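Hey team,

Filing this mostly as a record. A colleague (T.K.) asked me to run one chain through the structure pipeline before their review meeting, and I want the input and output archived in the tracker in case anyone asks later how it was produced. No errors, nothing strange. Just documentation.

Input sequence:
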Amino acid sequence: MPLNPDVPLDPAAHDQFPAACWVGPRHLAGDDGRLYDTVADTLSTLGWTSLTMVRGRQEPDEEPENRQVVRSTVLHLSPDTLRWAQWVLADEPFLLGDLPIAWHVSARADTGSPLAQWSAYFTPDVPGEAVADFLVALDARRHPAAPSGGRELVLEAVTGHGWLLDIDQPQAGAMDATFTTHISYGTVPPLIQDGDPQTLTRKVGEELDGWQAWSEPVLGGRCLWAASFSSSVPDDLVAAFARSVSSTAPVLRQVLPESTRDRLLRAPAI
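Output structure:
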């Protein structure tokens, strides 16, 4: 059945249509409220280990169930310990734009250094398939911190799916045909961590460049999602994310973002 924008998704219509629908385009489909599960299931399949870290306060003679949990995070670690992904949404994450960070992915060059060579950040409502594809590509890399490819890989990944190059910066940006979702190479936001430990303390004028991607359903309004890649993230990994998020293949969803549900083509999953 072709994707149909007129299929009602109101809960009252459950007797007419199933709750789950195939929807597109992917970059407007949100994360289905399952961003953690989608990514964690992928990492488990890849053999990554998960660790839950909880920090809190417990008073003397206080029952364990009454302990006050202050912060918690889930860390997923690759078998070679060179790459890791943290679910930080419950851990008071910093904001990317006006959205909280949900997944923080990093890699290092060797086990002799505790410092990450690069970091990538994903907010809620980034399609889980795109984050998962980014991590599959990262897992497949023998040297996760080594540079590879060039910026053209990222642009080719999205233009191959019909996105348009930025008229003003055709070598550094592209957007979908409705001008809603963008990917651009330029100055990264503050606090984006790269291999240089001075990144966190850089002053105004000491700017680093990297890839940014975001979806802005209403011009000048709140973004649906955002992703940021520090300057040392290999371009082929950014291209894997870009190729996935711009894919024309429909995705299965039960929960649609309020800001984009009217723009989504959809067909009931039978």
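Quick notes for T.K.: The chain has one domain: 19-49+70-197+205-268. Residues 3 and 266 are 5 Å apart (CA to CA).
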